[in-house]
Structures are given as C-alpha cells and as structure tokens.
C-alpha cells in the first residue's frame, strides 16, 4: 500500500482526486472504454468529489460514459429520503460529475428480495467489466462499506446489521438515533477487493485508531479494512490527525517527500 500523509483535509481531497483521475485515465487507455468507478458515501470523500468536478470543468478529466457503483445503502428509508445513499450519490456524485444516472448503480434498500438484489448488483459489476478504481473511507471501528467487524474477508454483497457505533457515528445526519436505520445492504470485502485499484481517504483523530489497526495491525476481521493489506494496488491518503497513531508516520512522510518529481501524481498524465 502507498500511504500519503497530507497536511489538511483540503490536501487529502486534492491528492486523492489526482490519484483517482490518474486511475480513470489509465483504465480508459488500457481498456479502450470509459472507466468504472466505485463510490463511497459519508463525509470523507466529499472533498474528493468536489476536486474531480473541478477537473471536469477545467478539462483535465473526462468521465463521459463512465459507470459507477455505490458501496452501500440503508434498508428501509423511503424512496427520496435525503439521507438514503441513492439521494446522496445523486447530489454529490452523479449530478456534479455529469454522469448518466442509468450508469450509476445503487443498491435498492426497499427491495422485497434483498438477496436477489445483491446478486444482481454483483452481476452488474461483472457485466460492466469490473471496477477500475474503488473509492473508500474507513469507519471508526475499522469498517469499509458497511462491512462491520466480524465480516468475512471474502464476503460478497449482502444484507448486514449495523453496529451500534456506526449508527451513533451516522446520527449526525439524522434528527435522532432512533431515525438511523439498523440494517443495510453493502458490497462485501471480497467484492471491494476485486477492484483493480482502491483509493482510501480518512481525516480526523476519530479515525486514527482504525487507520493504525488497518495499516500496522494483523489482517483480521476485527478490523475489516485491514484486508486492504492484501490488495496489490491501494493508495491511502490521510491527514495528520488520522495519522497520529501510526508508529510509521514519519517513514510515510519521507517516502512521499523523497519521491522523484516525475513520480508525483500531479505531474502525470497532465
């Protein structure tokens, strides 16, 4: 894994967006078709999406015809609820990035057949040729997507029960904890690991313990994000606060600072 420690949230967003943009250009060149992206929700990737939007506006990125798959969705929120991930993705990804809504896939949290919905979602990813670059965040308990601690490292898209800590962390988006759903549909860890490239963003001291366990702890279902240690092409972009529990933080800073200029992402494909 390549770990980049940025000075602040704005720099996290800029660097992560440069990495995602580079992956999109590489995918288009390699496969000859528009890229397929995996989209995370929550607050962590919002700056990244804003940076991608700016790249589209200045002509340094082209996502015409691109497809996308959301990581997860709550079960039971009514259609059109502002905190359903279908709506969040529409507001923060599909419309700002000018994507065709027909090519942006979000799990149906109101399906009468959740297992069938998950199976069809997996097949849609296969039919699209797989995900070229998957954007992820990390929960304070180490989850990615809604793969809570204890999730199988080989899991596929499925229904899950949300951990109480996750519900409390997400309460800020709702009027009360009682309004936060208790169940969800989520891409599995095995599904996420199938992506050709993964870019993670994390910010703040509340993520520091999870980041340390992910990067420096053993690969274990007790920290689902630790499975990323097994992926061949992962970039972790974090701020100083999120890096504050890393014993190897200075090493990662030096590794990035001492890279030859031609290897810097903002010097590539521009």
Q: How does this model look, in words?
A:
With 270 residues, this protein is of the alpha/beta class. 33% of the residues lie in helices and 16% in strands. The chain has helices at 9-31, 46-58, 85-94, 114-127, 164-170, 189-193, 208-216, 249-257; strands at residues 2-6, 36-39, 67-70, 72-74, 104-105, 133-136, 158-161, 183-186, 197-202, 234-239. The strands form 2 sheets. A 7-stranded parallel sheet has the order 1-10-9-6-2-3-5, with helices on both faces. It has a 3-stranded antiparallel sheet with strand order 4-8-7. Strand 9, helix 7 and strand 10 form a beta-alpha-beta unit. The longest helix is centred in the N-terminal third of the chain and has 23 residues, at 9-31. The mean pLDDT is 94.
* Poorly predicted residue ranges: none
CATH topology title: Rossmann fold
What percent of residues adopt helix (DSSP H or I)? Answer: 25-40%
Task: Please report the first level of CATH classification, the CATH class.
Answer: Alpha Beta
What is the number of helical segments per DSSP (H or I, 4+ residues)? 8
